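Sequence design from tokenized structure. All designs in this work follow the same two-part layout: the structure record, then the generated sequence. An example of the structure record is given first.
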């Protein structure tokens, strides 16, 4: 995403599928690479198909798009099966189970789910119900993927989720959350308020966050949980689609009020800034001015803007220049600092570094 000085081919094609119908093969070569690196090839395929443009694409790039279209359909079908298995495991508990991120977009029928692929399922439950939910899942074949006692303590005491659970037969991954931010994080929010305000979905066992909370969680996950922003471009596009779908009536006023109530104004400011800067989203002028006035200033603001922008732009290659690598390291360090206070962070990193060189398992040393 190259911003206001000239949008990338991917952004132009995602926002205006008709544009892609007139591209030559050289442009398609760049566009397919951009979409694949950004994990948006399926989203591009669905957008072109819905606009009736896919049949006009030259055969060579069309094969890539058709493949991504079918892969995404398969992922959505597998997700439905996985959700039915989770429902069987948890349905008798009487616990509110809130889906997060991609699974929530799918169940709610949001445009952000079109063409998306899923690496795991994320669910949010009340912390008081965590033990019962974990036990019920284990009885149905999910097991913790981290067995080291320290890793268990790290997740259970300091993180906002339990260690990832993997199904022993299907190999699928489930992330069981009790909050959207670690209790040790600088930002504080109330997961109970999120759960209490969550919405039932007709014909579904699961609940989803209400629109304002879904937008805020996506922004918080992107700017305060991702670290190096592995999927930054795709996650920013999710926010763009939600802005399109939710951004009517008094949504933006309600969103600002809800962000203040939940202590999530910072991620909202960053989301609005980069939606305007990189995607030129249709946002109210007063909202953009509000975000601009609250963006960090001085050297910190310049560095933060540069590094976040580097993590969010569209790329057509996985290779990175030295400057980009350094900005990525800055985001990793920032991500750790946001999750933990300095004393706890130093203790954690020192312990991980020590056992990385001198593993407890003698067999690991030989490997």
């Amino acid at each position: 995403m190259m911003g206001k000085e000239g949008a990338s081919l991917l952004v132009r094609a995602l926002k205006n599928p008709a544009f892609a119908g007139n591209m030559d093969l050289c442009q398609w070569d760049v566009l397919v690479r951009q979409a694949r690196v950004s994990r948006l090839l399926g989203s591009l395929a669905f957008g072109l198909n819905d606009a009736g443009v896919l049949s006009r694409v030259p055969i060579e790039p069309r094969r890539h798009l058709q493949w991504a279209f079918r892969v995404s359909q398969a992922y959505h079908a597998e997700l439905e099966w996985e959700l039915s298995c989770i429902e069987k495991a948890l349905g008798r508990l009487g616990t509110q189970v809130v889906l997060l991120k991609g699974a929530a977009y799918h169940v709610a029928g949001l445009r952000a789910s079109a063409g998306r692929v899923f690496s795991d399922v994320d669910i949010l439950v009340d912390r008081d119900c965590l033990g019962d939910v974990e036990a019920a899942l284990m009885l149905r074949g999910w097991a913790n993927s981290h067995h080291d006692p320290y890793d268990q303590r790290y997740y259970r005491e300091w993180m906002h989720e339990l260690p990832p659970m993997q199904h022993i037969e299907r190999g699928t991954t489930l992330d069981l959350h009790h909050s959207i931010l670690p209790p040790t994080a600088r930002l504080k929010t109330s997961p109970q308020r999120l759960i209490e305000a969550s919405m039932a979905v007709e014909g579904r066992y699961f609940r989803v966050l209400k629109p304002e909370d879904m937008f805020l969680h996506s922004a918080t996950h992107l700017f305060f949980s991702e670290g190096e922003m592995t999927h930054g471009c795709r996650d920013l596009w999710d926010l763009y689609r939600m802005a399109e779908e939710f951004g009517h009536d008094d949504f933006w006023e309600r969103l600002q009020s809800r962000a203040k109530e939940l202590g999530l104004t910072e991620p909202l400011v960053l989301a609005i800034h980069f939606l305007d800067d990189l995607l030129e989203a249709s946002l109210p002028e007063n909202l953009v001015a509000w975000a601009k006035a609250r963006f960090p200033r001085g050297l910190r603001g310049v560095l933060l803007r540069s590094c976040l922008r580097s993590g969010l732009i569209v790329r057509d290659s996985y290779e990175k220049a030295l400057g980009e690598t350094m900005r990525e390291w800055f985001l990793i360090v920032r991500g750790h600092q946001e999750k933990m206070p300095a004393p706890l962070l130093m203790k954690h990193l020192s312990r991980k570094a020590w056992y990385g060189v001198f593993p407890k398992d003698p067999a690991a040393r030989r490997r």
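The two ends are 41 Å apart (CA to CA). We note this feature because it recurs in several other targets discussed in the main text.
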